[in-house]
Amino acid sequence: MSNTRDLLILGGGLVGMTLALAAAKKGISSHVVDRADPAELTAEGFDGRASAISTASWNLFTNIGLAGRLEHHGCPIASIAVSDQMRPGRLDFTPAPDEGSLGRMFANRELRLALFEAAAAEPLIAWHAKADVIARQRGEFGVSATLADGQALSASLMIAAEGRRSPTREEAGLVVAKWDYTHRAIIAGLTHENSHQNVAWEIFYAAGPFALLPMLDDAQGRHRSALVWTVNEGDANGVLKLSDRAFLSEVEKRMGDIFGAITSVAPRSSYPLGFHHTARITAPRLALVGDAAHGIHPIAGQGLNLGLRDVGALAEVLAEGMRLGLEPGDAQLLARYENWRGLDAFTVALATDGLTRIFGIPGRTASAIRRLGMAGIQRTPALKHWFMDEARGVTGDLPELLKA
Fold this sequence. Notes:
This protein is α+β, with helices and mostly antiparallel strands and 404 residues long. The protein has 12 helices and 20 strands.
């Protein structure tokens, strides 16, 4: 195996591994380095960790050959219901029958399995799992990384795909604007009496959104949904320590009887919520993708989709440049990627932050004003259609890989 490839991708999660596969489809080779153990990331069981895959992101998976592997594991999102504390004035987004779904929900385990299986079979990808990077170098003529086992990997371009706390980004000294929401997302898988009818619910409370995301029924035919419940940081440990019975009682208070009785809950997990956005997503021979570049609130389920748009844009820029005889680390190509993705990512980040703050204003007056605005949107088909296109990810200057 050659230790010199076109790309050195540090981080082999959902975004990093998708980038490696997208690049391979363009004939671009890569090293993918990740600290995690793939066996742990793909262990069986439904724990509620799931991702909404937009229409554009599904096009990407289709175009890199993953649709057949994933098709039967995704739950279509037929509509989205938005409510302010389950009070009157609900907002519904339901596309016309010929417009397809608003996206698909996948357990993260299934996404990882599909990506890892494809990567293992792709000769243009050298996958280094359970590997720690102990040194990174970027020079005039290339980049390299030294692993804890002594291997030295080299390439033309280094890509940081390590997530929100990217050590590669920090080492490069890229400026990051960030703040903490002092909230935590509680994640759990629910089984329930009634079908969710493929509806994704976003119920807003002052402490944050309470999202119920439709999942496929399990092998026994039990109806399932993924819960993402935002709570104040100070309350999070208490919520996590509740007995299953007490936890379900709190859940049912917030969602009413829309799914009938909640019959069971999977083990809970949580993560802190924050915002960050880098002033630049490139440096000499370095590009950032996904959460290494921008971390947003999960309020609209757009975090992974934003990263997959990075993937499509970077793969297209690199492939076009290499056809012209440029190397992947060429400054012209990085400038084009920066210009293409910088504004879109910043706009989505600000929009999700704004929604979080608007719906976080407590009090009946604020709630009444929000519901009045929602009622106006409900009565304006053109505006609703625009919101649905945004949810599908089909607006703006899309990379070819994200088009049908």
